[in-house]
Specification:
The complex is a heterotetramer of chains A (245), B (612), C (144) and D (371). Chain A is built from 8 helices and 10 strands. In chain A, 36% of the residues lie in helices and 27% in strands. Chain C is an alpha+beta fold and 144 residues long. Chain C contains 4 helices and 3 strands. A 3-stranded antiparallel β-sheet of chain C has the order 1-2-3. In chain C, a hairpin with a 2-residue loop joins strand 2 and strand 3 (77-84). The radius of gyration of chain C is 19 Å and the shape is globular. Chain D has a 4-stranded antiparallel β-sheet with strand order 3-4-5-6. The longest helix of chain D has 19 residues, at 337-355. The termini of chain D are far apart. The chains are: A alpha/beta (245), B alpha/beta (612), C alpha+beta (144), D alpha+beta (371). Chains in contact: A-B, B-C, B-D, C-D. At the C-D interface, helix 1, strand 1, strand 2, strand 3 and helix 4 of C face strand 1, strand 2, helix 8, strand 4 and strand 5 of D. Chain C: One of its GO terms (biological process) is organic phosphonate transport. Chain C: This is Alpha-D-ribose 1-methylphosphonate 5-triphosphate synthase subunit PhnG. Chain C: It holds the Pfam family PhnG.
């Protein structure tokens, strides 16, 4: 079997809050996790169990204290925890998509430009990037009349779809999703979910946090249940979620 | 003791003998001074257009009354010479008469008013209409030898500009002149570029005479007594009046004018008195034309009739396409970074590196306990790649702007190295380069946007003129091409083109900052340094500038360093960030990581403050 | 060589002497028909006053002082004189007197006498000057 | 045949010269002898000597007479004369400590080393205009004063700066710049950046009014780097001039010349300066001219502190010489009709351009073309 796109081992993360007398807040206590190409792994667990922290540690928005996060792209696995900042920034641009529940699109730029900018970072030229961005926005039902409107004036749902379009345009090797459809109405939610599903079919490795267990059951290849910052279960959605539900 | 009477004094008799043997002649310039003048003249001939300092002596004529020209004439003249002296073209002018008496009275040379007989012609403000040949030396009396005086008041700075052939301020003044007045209004003493190198003031002669300096047969010597400068245009030297490639140089002309004495219409004419009309300024030529003793046909050929003013040609000049961009060729050994800063430090005050121990975040102070010096920055390391933006954040006084100033060259660094990928493939430490070369880097390799637009712009010139300054420094010489490029840039930074020809002083803060950004980008530098680019602007204006910068950084392959105390600016523009406190880098990382997971107590405080 | 008075001291005193007394004595020296060669014709020129200022001990050129100079040869001895001002006859005479003294000729003692008289006169002048200046000193009461 | 330029210029000049000569030299009044001028107009003579940079009272007096009392014109005559003179020697460096004082005041201290010697001064005299008819009143018939022996301290009092040094109150700059050869401004033009020796030499022969004006501008003008300082000392006196004897190589005193000297004490307050100490500016000029040396001392310390970062050094070196500024100003009286014609032509060309619809504020098509 091919090596996993993402291999997390013994990942630990504690926050030291110097502004509050150096208080330490523990988040991850040694997480082990693999995500293969074409696999959709959903993270489940109670609020505060460490789901978002894990995604952020993988994306390096958080710096892990110890443990290993390896990503395999075209060649040898790359250790993300020790990767120089510039290399990490480039890897993010080319290989990793990250879609949070919050808008990452900069204000005062339109959806098309925002999405195209991501596509260009992933190696497309200006023309190709605009085409790919247009396709992604279409697919997520973002009204064409909004494409060059300042993102700042979009509704929450529209922003989330722009985010998703940016995260998935020119599919990355690894897609990290943190509640990407929380603000969407049912119709657009379906479009978004089917987009995610199609990416998995295109061999993208997806690590996702969904609020909704039903979504996990439908889309996830595997579900990893986190509790107190560690993996308590890892298995088929029905197995893991069945018990949890 | 017996003494002879004073009447029959042996001593006095002896003195009389000595004087008789020596022969006393009234000299106004001793031999040593003449030698010095000749040495300066030789230097001036060797370096055409360069102002050679000389130990100008006080002459019996006032400074400003031809003391420089007089010294040159006395220095070069010999018994075989014949001298002609003119003032405003007139042999009988009071100044000419005065000087002729002095030259004649103290040398053995012959005098003439006929240019054809003269070998040395000392002149105020004119070149004779008669043809000059290799036997002629023109000596000009120069009141103000510095052509840059109008654009730069500091003589130190003028000296630097000449040394570095940095004449962009002159070009901008011409550009502004055309924008404001529709033509170049420089009158007499028109600046010229000599031998492709020095910009020189032409004495002042009228523009009419300027074309006759180009590839002249005769030697031109310029003496400025008060300012103690001698300069020269040797024969067969290229002399070009300063003007844009597509804006023609113009000589003086009045429609249907001619000399009311001799009828000439191809000479330099001056007002002919209260009854109107014109007369020749060159009285010798005028007389000879009337007497039929002038070669009028040959004169007409050398008259600058092809350079009469013509409004139709003025602003539709031919396009030039010789400009080059400051693009960098990347080769195999070019490093991946565009800018690399290593161990840079700056200590204000005494002690240098010895002042460093006991300062920094651990000590809680930037003041050296041993020397009292202020350690503004120490041991700062980073590099930036093309297409990447690096942030430098910290409170005011943390040293971030100091680091930037050291990189730019605004202040000398105490330690460390700075390398540019575009300079010698990154092998050269630019901090070790001479100031001249460092300044050249700022034309097309490294641009700065300052917090205060006044630091990066001349507020008294137009938006277009500010951009023209950078472009002319980079060698652009096409007026229309410069305007088009300036318009493109201003359009890109969303400055209305209707404001292009307004002085920047009339602009709002945000608009000034946009002009500064346009200027910084004019030559497409590989490295862009932004020092608090939005501080001091209203929040909404600042947001607009940030958006503009983000767009520009995204669309260009620029390596950018952004200094700001504001996390929102850093977050919006950069991928990676260094956090500085008391002159040291205390933390570095991906910008979003520093914002979401700061480790250092200082960074956490900054972030907490930013989130309030 | 004359005894008692150094050459530099003599030159300094001859430079202070009155023109007439110099010329008269020099004429007398030449009265024996001795061959005199003028090596440097009496000429008027400048001596540039170079000052070492007291703040940074840096030297600068304050300006010029008008002076004249002559050099002669008498009885195979060179006489040299410089004095302030533009009296060329006086400086020529002083050079002759310097040579006369230097050569130890007949009137060397007269030259010394002249120098001593000049020195004495200078001393008296200084005394007179001080007598005029001293009353302008501001005298403070002793504070007790 | 060639052109003959013999027109009115020369005759007019000769007639003007003659007019001056007749009115000046043959006015119906007694001739002013050189002695009269040196004895009666001592300060005017001294000022000319200082600004001309040549010490010789009869020369300055003759120049004043020829210039009809205009000190700037007189200084010009003296300088032009000096240009024709050979340099016989450079003096041995004069130590101003050797100054035999004729006047010496120490404003900063009540009782300095040595006397507060007022000397010949009108500082404390009411400025009542005296208009004697005929001869002035004879002086008081006081008996010839008793000669008093002058002590060394009275002759050459220790300078106030020495006292400050003893108290360790002054920054010591001695030896900082080695013993550099002084800049000779009469041979090598001085422009910023220049050695201090060039600035001191320039100030020593600057026009008195220009120096005072430059200093005063810092008091009431819109800008300025000069502080109001405390005056340490003002002296007038005689210095010996020594040159090397060509045969013995030893120094010979060839005479004495009078100078005025001042020290200005500056309170240091800069960020990188030693605030526990003072610094001192120095002024020295030929002859008796207290106003000039006091301005010079102030400007010396200001120039050392601020000269390079502001315009002061350029102002001192390039704008204080009376011959330069006066000469340039006077040259404006010369004919300028060639240059003026050239200017007029451009004005007319601008109007013609405006009439042709191409006047000021030309809208360049390039600007509008842009996307």
């Amino acid at each position: 079997m091919a090596s996993p796109v993402l291999a997390v081992r013994e990942l630990r993360k504690t926050f030291t809050l110097h502004t509050i007398d150096g208080r330490r807040v523990s988040s991850l206590h040694g997480v082990d996790l693999d995500v293969h190409a074409g696999e959709h792994v959903a993270l489940a667990g109670a609020s505060g169990a460490g789901k978002s922290s894990l995604l952020r540690c993988v994306y390096r928005t958080y710096l892990a204290d110890s443990g290993s996060v390896r990503m395999t792209t075209s060649g040898e696995p790359i250790e993300l925890t020790g990767l120089p900042d510039r290399a990490m920034a480039r890897l993010r641009g080319r290989e990793i998509g990250y879609v949070s529940q919050f808008l990452a699109a900069p204000p005062r730029t339109g959806p098309l430009e925002t999405v195209a900018a991501t596509a260009r970072r992933r190696g497309l030229d200006r023309e190709q990037a605009r085409d790919a961005a247009a396709a992604a926005l279409h697919r997520l039902n973002v009204d064409e009349s909004l494409w060059d409107v300042d993102c700042g004036v979009l509704s929450g749902g529209e922003r989330q779809r722009v985010n998703l379009a940016a995260g998935t345009v020119r599919p990355p090797r690894l897609l990290l999703l943190d509640e990407p459809v929380s603000a969407l109405d049912p119709e657009n939610r379906e479009a978004a979910l089917s987009l995610v599903d199609s990416l998995v079919e295109q061999n993208v490795a997806v690590l996702a946090v969904f609020h909704d267990a039903e979504v996990m059951r439908r889309l996830a290849t595997r579900v990893v249940l986190l509790a107190d910052g560690t993996v308590s279960r890892d298995g088929a959605p029905a197995d893991v979620l069945g018990e949890a539900a | 003791m017996t003494v002879t009477t004073t009447d029959a004094s042996a001593i006095r008799a002896l003195l009389a003998d000595v004087d008789e043997a020596r022969g006393v002649r009234q000299e106004i310039l001793d031999e040593g001074a003449k030698r010095e003048v000749r040495r300066a003249v030789l230097s001036a001939v060797c370096v055409p257009g360069y102002q050679v300092p000389f130990g100008s002596r006080e002459m019996p004529v006032a400074r400003g009354w031809g003391s420089g020209g007089l010294q040159v004439t006395l220095g070069v003249i010999g018994p075989a010479d014949t001298v002609k002296v003119i003032d405003q073209g007139d042999d009988a002018g009071v100044n000419a008469t005065n000087l002729r008496r002095m030259i004649g009275g103290t040398t053995d040379c012959a005098e003439t008013t006929d240019t054809r007989d003269a070998t040395v012609i000392q002149s105020r403000h004119r070149i004779p209409e008669e043809a000059l040949g290799e036997r002629h030396i023109m000596v000009y009396q120069v009141p103000v030898p510095e052509p840059l005086r109008g654009v730069e008041k500091s003589v130190v700075e003028c000296g630097r500009m000449h040394a570095e052939a940095d004449y962009s301020k002159m070009w901008v003044s011409l550009y502004e002149d055309i924008v404001r007045n529709g033509l170049i209004t420089a009158s007499s003493g028109y600046p010229v570029e000599v031998d492709g190198r020095y910009v020189m003031a032409t004495s002042p002669v009228p523009r009419w005479d300027v074309p006759r300096l180009h590839q002249a047969e005769h030697l031109n010597l310029y003496g400025a007594g008060r300012e103690k400068r001698i300069y020269a245009i040797p024969p067969h030297t290229d002399v070009h009046p300063l003007t844009f490639a597509d804006v023609p140089f113009e000589v003086e002309y009045a429609p249907d004018s001619y000399c009311k004495l001799c009828g000439s219409d191809d000479v330099f004419l001056v007002e002919g008195g209260p009854n109107g009309g014109y007369v020749c300024s060159d009285t010798e030529w005028c007389t000879r034309v009337r007497e039929g003793d002038a070669d009028i046909v040959a004169h007409r050929k050398r008259a600058p009739l092809g350079q009469l003013p013509d409004p139709r040609r003025r602003l539709v000049g031919t396009e030039v396409e010789e400009e080059v961009h400051g693009t960098v060729e990347r080769t195999a050994d070019t490093p991946e970074w565009a800018l690399r800063v290593s161990e840079v430090g700056k200590v204000h005050g005494s002690g240098g590196a010895a002042a460093v121990p006991g300062t920094g975040p651990e000590s809680g102070s930037a003041v050296s306990p041993s020397t009292g010096a202020i350690v503004a920055a120490w041991d700062v390391d980073f590099d930036v790649a093309p297409g990447e933006a690096l942030g430098l954040i910290g409170e005011s006084g943390s040293g971030k702007s100091t680091v930037l100033s050291c990189v730019v060259g605004d202040v000398p660094a105490t330690s460390g190295t700075v390398r540019l990928g575009a300079v010698d493939a990154g092998r050269t430490d630019v901090l070790a380069l001479p100031d001249e070369q460092r300044r050249k880097l700022r034309i097309d390799s490294m641009a700065v946007v300052y917090q205060d637009p006044a630091a990066g712009l001349n507020l008294d010139i137009t938006a277009g003129g500010n951009i023209a300054e950078r472009l002319t420094a980079a060698g652009w010489r096409g007026y229309h091409r410069i305007r088009r490029r300036a318009a493109e840039l201003l359009d890109r930074v969303e400055v209305p083109l209707s404001r292009m020809d307004d002085p920047v002083r009339t602009f709002s803060g945000g608009m000034r900052q946009r002009v500064q950004i346009a200027k910084a980008l004019a030559t497409e530098p590989a490295v862009l340094l932004l020092d608090e680019p939005t501080t001091g602007l209203d929040a909404s204006v600042a947001a607009g500038v940030i958006d503009l910068l983000r767009g520009l950084l995204a669309e260009r392959d620029i390596a950018a360093v952004v200094v700001s105390h504001d996390f929102a600016v850093i977050e919006a523009l950069t991928d990676r960030t260094l956090v500085m406190q008391l002159g040291r880098v205390v933390e570095r990382g991906l910008t979003d990581q520093l914002f979401h997971d700061p480790h250092h107590p200082y960074t956490q405080r900054l972030v907490a403050a930013a989130r309030r | 060589m004359s005894e008692g008075m150094g050459r530099e001291q003599r030159c300094a005193l001859l430079a202070e002497a009155e023109p007439d007394e110099l010329i008269q004595l020099a004429d007398a020296c030449l009265g024996d028909g001795a061959r005199l060669r003028v090596l440097v014709s009496p000429e008027v020129g400048c001596i540039t006053a170079q000052v070492r200022e007291p703040v940074a001990a840096e030297r600068f050129l304050l300006g010029d002082v008008l002076a004249c100079r002559a050099e002669v040869e008498l009885a195979e001895q060179r006489g040299w004189a410089v004095r302030l001002g533009d009296d060329r006859a006086a400086v020529l005479a002083a050079a002759v007197l310097d040579a006369e003294a230097q050569a130890g000729r007949d009137r060397a003692a007269d030259v010394d006498d002249l120098c001593r008289a000049v020195a004495e006169r200078g001393h008296r002048q200084a005394e007179r000057e001080w007598a005029e200046l001293a009353p302008t000193i501001v005298e403070f009461e002793e504070l007790t | 045949m060639g052109y003959s330029g013999a027109r009115g210029g020369l005759a007019a000049i000769l007639a003007a010269e003659d007019l001056v000569r007749r009115k000046r030299d043959h006015a119906p009044a007694p001739w002013a002898s050189t002695e009269q001028i040196t004895e009666r107009f001592r300060l005017a003579v001294d000022r000319v000597m200082g600004e001309a940079g040549l010490y010789h009272e009869p020369t300055a007096a003759a120049a004043l007479r020829q210039a009809e009392g205009d000190p700037l014109e007189a200084a010009h005559l003296v300088r032009a004369q000096r240009s024709t003179l050979p340099r016989l020697a450079n003096s041995e460096p004069v130590d101003p400590d050797e100054l035999i004082v004729l006047r010496r005041i120490v404003p900063a201290f009540r009782e300095p080393d040595g006397p507060q010697l007022l000397g010949r001064t009108t500082d404390y005299t009411g400025r009542m205009l005296e208009r004697p008819d005929g001869q002035p009143a004879p002086p008081d018939a006081s008996p010839e004063p008793e000669p008093v022996e002058r002590t060394d301290e009275q002759r050459q009092p220790r300078r106030f700066l020495d006292l400050l040094r003893k108290l360790d109150l002054v920054v010591d700059h001695r030896g900082e710049n080695g013993d550099a050869e002084p800049h000779d401004i009469t041979r090598v033009p001085a422009r910023p950046p220049a050695a201090r020796s060039a600035v001191l030499a320039t100030m020593a022969r600057a026009e008195t009014g220009a120096l005072v004006g430059l200093w005063y501008r810092s008091i009431l003008g819109p800008d300025g780097d000069v502080h109001e300082v405390t005056l340490g000392e003002v002296r007038h006196g005689r210095l010996p001039l020594r040159i090397r004897h060509p045969h013995t190589g030893n120094p010979v005193t060839v005479g004495e010349f009078r100078v005025t000297e001042a020290e200005a004490i500056e309170d240091l307050d800069g960020a990188e300066e030693d605030r526990t100490k003072f610094d001192v500016g120095y002024g020295l000029c030929l002859g008796h001219n207290e106003r000039k040396v006091i301005a010079m001392a102030n400007l010396d310390i200001a120039n050392r502190r601020f000269g390079r970062q502001g315009p002061l050094e350029q102002l001192l070196l390039l704008t204080t010489d009376g011959l330069d500024s006066g000469g340039f100003l006077e040259h404006l009286k010369l004919p300028h009709y060639v240059t003026f014609r050239s200017m007029v032509e451009r004005k007319q060309a601008m109007r013609a351009a405006a009439d042709a619809g191409m006047g000021p504020r030309v809208a360049d098509p390039a600007g509008r073309d842009c996307r």
